[in-house]
Amino acid sequence: MRLDKFLKASRLIKRRTLAKEACDRGQVTVNNRMAKAGTEIKLDDILVINFGNRTLKIKIVSVQENVPAKTATSLYEILEDSRSL
């Protein structure tokens, strides 16, 4: 699955367009490499997403395109969530 689609499906980023823009700005890495929106992700990949003053490190545990909002968090496991002031 494409990275931008996963970010939207997992509800980590609200819209696919915003996910693509975050990737274009270099705010997302997959397995310690800068990732483009079209990067193919798979199980056990490690994503690091920088949201300005917040950095979120997650591990992908499931890859599904259509997921209800209530179960979207089951697609990933949070490894680290840090905020800087």
Provide a short characterization of the protein structure.
The protein is 19% helix and 31% strand. With 85 residues, the protein is of the alpha+beta class.
Radius of gyration: 12 Å
**Strand portion:** 25-35%
By secondary-structure content and strand pairing, the structural class works out as: alpha+beta
CATH homologous superfamily identity: RNA-binding S4 domain
Q: Please give the number of β-strands.
A: 5
For the sheet with most strands, the description reads: 5 strands, antiparallel
State the assembly state of the protein chains: single chain
**Can you write the helix and strand succession as a string?**
HHEEEEE
If you consult CATH, what is the topology?
Structural Genomics Hypothetical 15.5 Kd Protein In mrcA-pckA Intergenic Region, Chain A
CATH second-level architecture: Roll
Strand order of the largest sheet: 2-1-3-4-5
- What value does the average pLDDT take? 93
Terminal CA distance? 34 Å
CATH class: Alpha Beta
